[in-house]
Hints:
The complex is a heterotetramer, with two copies of chain A and two copies of chain C.
Chain A: E1 8-17, E2 22-27, E3 30-31, E4 38-43, E5 47-52, E6 57-58, E7 61-65, H1 69-75, E8 82-89, E9 99-105, H2 108-121, E10 125-132, H3 141-147, E11 150-155, E12 162-163, H4 166-176, E13 181-185, H5 188-201, E14 205-208, E15 224-225, E16 228-229, E17 236-238, H6 239-243, E18 251-253, E19 259-261
Parallel strand pairs in A: 9-10, 9-13, 10-11, 11-12, 13-14
Antiparallel strand pairs in A: 1-2, 1-8, 2-7, 3-6, 4-5, 4-8, 14-17, 15-16, 18-19
Helix pairs in contact in A: 4-5
Chain C: E1 6-8, E2 11-13, E3 17-19, H1 28-36, E4 41-43, E5 60-63, E6 66-69, H2 78-88, E7 95-99, H3 104-116, E8 121-125, H4 142-155, E9 160-163, H5 171-180, E10 185-188, E11 192-194, E12 197-198, E13 203-204, E14 211-214, H6 219-230, E15 237-240, H7 246-255, E16 259-262, H8 264-269, H9 273-288, H10 293-296
Parallel strand pairs in C: 3-4, 3-16, 4-7, 7-8, 8-9, 9-10, 10-15, 15-16
Antiparallel strand pairs in C: 1-2, 5-6, 6-14, 11-14, 12-13
Helix pairs in contact in C: 1-2, 3-4, 4-5, 6-7, 7-9
Residues 213-216, 218-223, 229, 231 of chain B line the site of one FE2/S2 (inorganic) cluster.
Amino acid sequence: MPIGSGIRAFAITEQVDETPTIRTVRLDGSMHAQPGQFVMVWVPGKDEFPMSISYPGERFGITYKVVGEGTRHLSIMKPGERIGIRGPYGKGYSIEGRNILIVAGGTGMAALAPMVEQAVASGASVDVVLGARTQSELLLRKRCERSGATLHITTDDGSDGSKGFTTDKARVLLEVGVYDMMYACGPERMIVGLLQLSRTTGVPMQASLERYMKCGIGICDSCAIDGKHVCVDGPVFSHEVLSKLSELGRTRMSPSGGRIPID
Amino acid sequence: MPIGSGIRAFAITEQVDETPTIRTVRLDGSMHAQPGQFVMVWVPGKDEFPMSISYPGERFGITYKVVGEGTRHLSIMKPGERIGIRGPYGKGYSIEGRNILIVAGGTGMAALAPMVEQAVASGASVDVVLGARTQSELLLRKRCERSGATLHITTDDGSDGSKGFTTDKARVLLEVGVYDMMYACGPERMIVGLLQLSRTTGVPMQASLERYMKCGIGICDSCAIDGKHVCVDGPVFSHEVLSKLSELGRTRMSPSGGRIPID
Amino acid sequence: MTGLEVDIAGIRMRNPTMLASGILNETGRSMVDVAKAGAGAVVTKSVGLEPREGHPNPCIVELKCGLINAMGLPNPGIDAYLEEVAFAQNGGVPVIGSVFGGSEEEIAEVAKRMASAGVAAVELNLSCPHAEGLGAEIGSTPDRVKRICGAVKASVEVPVFAKLTPNTSSIVSLASAAEEGGADGVVAINTLRAMAICPELGRPILSNRFGGLSGEAVRAVGVRCVYEIFDTVTVPIIGVGGVTTSKDALEYIMAGATAVQMGTAVWSDGPGVFSDVCDGIGKFMNANGYESVEEMKGIAHR
Amino acid sequence: MTGLEVDIAGIRMRNPTMLASGILNETGRSMVDVAKAGAGAVVTKSVGLEPREGHPNPCIVELKCGLINAMGLPNPGIDAYLEEVAFAQNGGVPVIGSVFGGSEEEIAEVAKRMASAGVAAVELNLSCPHAEGLGAEIGSTPDRVKRICGAVKASVEVPVFAKLTPNTSSIVSLASAAEEGGADGVVAINTLRAMAICPELGRPILSNRFGGLSGEAVRAVGVRCVYEIFDTVTVPIIGVGGVTTSKDALEYIMAGATAVQMGTAVWSDGPGVFSDVCDGIGKFMNANGYESVEEMKGIAHR
Ligand SMILES: Cc1cc2nc3c(=O)[nH]c(=O)nc-3n(C[C@H](O)[C@H](O)[C@H](O)COP(=O)(O)OP(=O)(O)OC[C@H]3O[C@@H](n4cnc5c(N)ncnc54)[C@H](O)[C@@H]3O)c2cc1C
Ligand SMILES: Cc1cc2nc3c(=O)[nH]c(=O)nc-3n(C[C@H](O)[C@H](O)[C@H](O)COP(=O)(O)OP(=O)(O)OC[C@H]3O[C@@H](n4cnc5c(N)ncnc54)[C@H](O)[C@@H]3O)c2cc1C
Ligand SMILES: Cc1cc2nc3c(=O)[nH]c(=O)nc-3n(C[C@H](O)[C@H](O)[C@H](O)COP(=O)(O)O)c2cc1C
Ligand SMILES: Cc1cc2nc3c(=O)[nH]c(=O)nc-3n(C[C@H](O)[C@H](O)[C@H](O)COP(=O)(O)O)c2cc1C
Ligand code: FES
Ligand code: FES
């Protein structure tokens, strides 16, 4: 928990539609970060929320789904307008092994795309399972293809790739392939499913979690899950830690600190 | 003006009589400093005042004349008792040249003793003029002799060495010798005299000044002399700077900031 | 009491450090972890009668020497929170329940429910500088402080600590009022009312605009407050504000604090800061011939 | 006014930075040097009727993010000091004379003599937190602040600025009182009352025990004060406290300050800090399309 540098303002250089509901915003500045680390994004006058760094380095960027007021406002901001950023925060993925399986569901590919590229660059053989509700929502597909990884598409509605969930495809790959490590980001029930597979196949795993965040720096306790703090101990956790989390897939905390069930 | 580390407490290891009116106190700790730099010495409950570091390094020490309440209290403190120290502060002497003349009057040798040792160690040929009112007040004489420098003693009353002032002896030496630099510390009228010699002989000079100090860190203006601050711009000044000081040898400031003549 | 142990209003603590309110204490589990990391006691999050989301984000600003926060007293309401308090008891150290409210009656009621969860004491947050109608807004006059303490004392059996605001011309008069109202101890200080502005965006960073400054920046103010209070009141004082090292804790203790709380240091140094501070105090005591923390209390007043 | 120039109560400054009272302003020559180093105006040391030695040493404590000082208003008395004020005029920037006293009459008298030296304005130190019967001890109630400002206004022609204490529950009411008393501007903030203790020696470091905290540590409090005052008073505000970078100065300006003063930064960064801050403000204005400092004033209130 080193003392951070506080909020910095960055101008938007461009906004790119990735899917009908997901956009990428690129910013005029650089941010070096491990894959899986996040920033707190301040949309002035509206909200501040955590977002994975989907494009690290120069002209860094985040890839966000429009789900509420804050993200909607971000989506209508124009190049030249500025937002506040603090971070990078948290612990990202550590790249290990020669044979790697990466599983991304929903917006999960935002956190995993830099991971895919770096894993391929490290010389590993990389299988990527990319899943979405439907074909048009498959996130950063082209970027994955270009990376040199082997892409396996799943859609809930069968509009592309195999019909079904990412966990189904991951099960098949884990049964036939030999993997040193599995990396995941996506809905919590997907993480729970993959953790089960990790347990049965013995393939270790690292997964990124999401919790409501206020401070982002390990002080307010709002992102707590069984005493771990997603903002500083995570968002990426190893399967050892994940297996011990009694709240995983069950409850999360609301902004007031009350416990609510995970859908 | 870098941000300092604040006051630290040090236990007294010993108190040594140097002359009937001057003692050295050694402290349980180390302090690395240039010759000529000073510390602010806090005698708890009494006073805090500036003192040159006469023994830098391990078990560092200061050599002080008992002139008032603060120094009197320091003089009766026993080994094991503690004082507060902040520093080192200020700009010390910079050792330059192969032929060096060092002139110390009164307690001036407290600041100059480390200078003598380092100059000799640097391979320079070093002449030292050490002056005092009377023989018993000649400060750190043995230490100078041991250093390998050539010692020239003067006393006001003629009880040792040549009778007269350090400036008289310095004039003689400057007339016959060839010096690259003159270093001085002592009463201000001595500095003024030497500055005159420096001007006529063309031998450059560095001298340490004393002014009433409160902050010691360049913020309160109480040690100002013509806009220079003895605590941060000095206490050691070059002859170029010294020649421009209209207040040198004339006025100094009292604790209230009023100007008083220098005796 | 020997070594690091202290007794505060009858509460025995293995060491003089406590987790401050509002830091890693939304969940019982986090409080247990902080206790395991070495804290001598944990204070809970400040809790009110009803659930409250607190201020929207951004609610924290990182500075070079501290934090500004405007959490806005988020909490799930005392009834839901009692479960966390109960869990916190597993930490094996005293749990002190922090409560807030908008009136004497409300605070007394929350305190009563808090006490029912078996806390060792209740701490009254009369000092949050950024929540309308709560905290400092009702804790800035001696008269009100006295009445609130009186009301709470009448409703609970456990010791009552009043946490005071430094945003006043006389924290001493607030402390005296708390004592007169029957408080068993005072806690000083809560955060200093503060603000940060982002020049590029030309607006205050916090959604609430105003927040509270904590950490290194405020220590010298907190030590001064404790020193002043010690000269006037006789009930024990808990020192808070900018404690990160054993030296900082010792400043508070010598100023007159029986114990210290730490909040912002958990951010800058992690929860290990509790055992680091305690180790440092222990070493200092050995090196300086002190046999108990009590012995050092207030000695800077000699 | 274009570029860095500002006008405050009719005083034209080439840039919005001033030397704060009590820092490098015991001598006229030092003030001239600070002006040459880039300050847009210089405030003098706070001066009283009679000579005063101030508190004995130690009178300063260096902290990680600021200083605590208890100089205790040393000064040679207004009559002796006028010579320094006269010399300070050689800096080529407005000189603002800071004065203190123990009563309305005394302050008015010192202000009158100060004005005779041709200062551009007088600044009333109603806020020093460590001098008995002076400064904050008489400047902490709105009523007194109003009366003092009124008395001074009646005795001088030049603009009068009231420098206020943040050691209060409402600096806004002090600012309003100053305005009602006729002050032409308010200066916020003076130092926060604070203390540091040396654990090994078991005593407060300052001979006066209490001192005033300045520097980085207090900036967020100062910015908050200026922001609050700007919402209520219409006279110009001069922001002080922890300004070291152009970003810090911009925080104050956007909170509502017309100009800023710097003190502690002269210690941490040297007198070159004035031109550094001004350069930074200039660059920021270019990059962000502002044409005058005035244009940025108070925009964080939008
Ligand atoms: C470590 C981390 C990384 C994330 N990375 C991404 C990413 O790369 N792309 C992406 O689209 N989303 C990501 N999210 C989720 C993202 O934070 C929310 O979608 C976003 O906060 C919604 O903001 P809003 O104001 O539009 O929604 P609101 O209308 O405020 O709320 C809608 C929902 O968004 C979530 N949410 C809102 N605020 C927060 C908050 N402060 N912290 C956590 N969740 C919140 C809640 O579930 C809430 O119910 C990430 C979350 C975390 C914790
Ligand atoms: C850079 C510097 C280095 C010095 N080094 C030495 C040294 O190595 N050995 C030595 O004996 N003396 C040294 N002095 C002088 C020394 O500071 C004074 O002798 C000492 O402060 C006297 O303190 P007191 O409380 O005993 O005297 P007091 O009774 O307080 O005053 C006696 C006289 O001491 C001087 N003095 C007192 N307080 C201060 C102060 N805060 N700053 C400056 N002068 C003061 C004044 O001339 C005063 O009139 C140095 C002074 C300076 C500025
Ligand atoms: C994020 C955060 C939340 C806080 N919440 C509360 C709170 O709910 N109740 C309370 O009494 N104090 C609260 N405080 C104040 C702290 O308990 C403490 O008084 C203050 O931070 C000074 O201590 P520190 O410098 O060790 O952090 C909070 C402080 C911070 C930083
Ligand atoms: C050493 C020192 C002396 C001061 N003396 C005075 C003074 O005489 N009169 C006054 O009004 N303020 C005085 N102050 C307060 C400053 O003018 C200023 O208000 C305060 O230090 C905050 O600004 P800064 O953080 O830039 O230093 C003094 C501050 C310091 C550090
Ligand atoms: S978001 Fe505050 S602790 Fe994680
Ligand atoms: S002693 Fe304060 S400026 Fe030198």
